Amino acid sequence: MSLMVWGYLIAGLVLLVAGAEVLVRGAAKLAAQFGIPPLVIGLTVVAFGTSAPETAVSVQAALAGSGDLAIGNVVGSNIANVLLILGLTALIAPLVVSRQLIRLDVPIMIGASLLTLALAWDGSLSKLDGLLLFTCILAYSAFLIINSYREKSVPADDEFAKEFALHEPAKRYAWQINLLLIVVGLVLLVSGSNFLVQGAVSLARTLGLSELVIGLTVVAVGTSLPELATSLMAAIRGERDIAVGNIVGSNIFNLLCVLGLASLLSPAPILVAANALAFDFPVMIGVAVVCLPIFFSGYCINRWEGLLFIGYYVAYTLYLVLSAAGRPLADQFATAMLGYVLPLTAITLLVITVQSWRKTKLQG
Fold it and tell me: Tell me, which fold does domain 3-363 have in CATH?
């Protein structure tokens, strides 16, 4: 395999991560200078910023005619965000789940997943589909801003302020410096997306894999690195509300904003592969749905649940690789997962949910 391919991939990932970090820091501090509350900044600017790599890569892929890469990037990122990133984060420390996430944000994540599948069911995402998705993210963002002003959460507000140093007094020429950071971040994101798309397409051709598989694995994990860094650091610092909320918010933005923009800007409808509709979209929806019972059980994600998430992500990735290689073992593996592992997990989660519900009723 050519060293240039790996060079493109590594350079693209480095530029994307650096660009997202610089963009978020500059935008967050600039917003704070205009008097916007830290919680609103966290729910909007930070959420957009951590999804910036997915946006840059999917839009660039759509413009280049690599629809499979654009779809695989978003679907794969959403699966990796929950199974891999939340799993790894929960292993560091059990994660606290706010009641708002269970009542509002997780159902919205599930609804956004179902809406995207419904729009893509005809085999493509048109400009009209993109407009609908993007309108939904604007409405969601507006709701978050209005709701945060009505129900101000001091702990969450303080967490975001501490994370991004928003309470520090503004230095001389601060707004010019922050504006420059935003511009630099955008340039790095565009450059990184170009490198990553070129490297991913070349890697797919070299290995004989589809762009969809590369998008679901290599590109998806790569563009999820900002979410990984944010959630891991938040868990280490004890900011566990940010750790979980960051993932759920990012998944919503990936579907509504990233795919919405990619579909709007693409010169032609983005084609959606039949195997993605039959397998990867249902996996993404299943991962979103399983968050409800796990989050509801004690309003936290325990270490064993984090380990379960990681195990499923390894199984999902292994199936993609075996299936792409055309090995019969992939069918046997899928049968074992569908016939034994998944039903046992579903029964376990059902029992835990019922026990948690009964405990909540008794305490109430």
Answer: A middle domain of Talin 1 (1.20.1420)
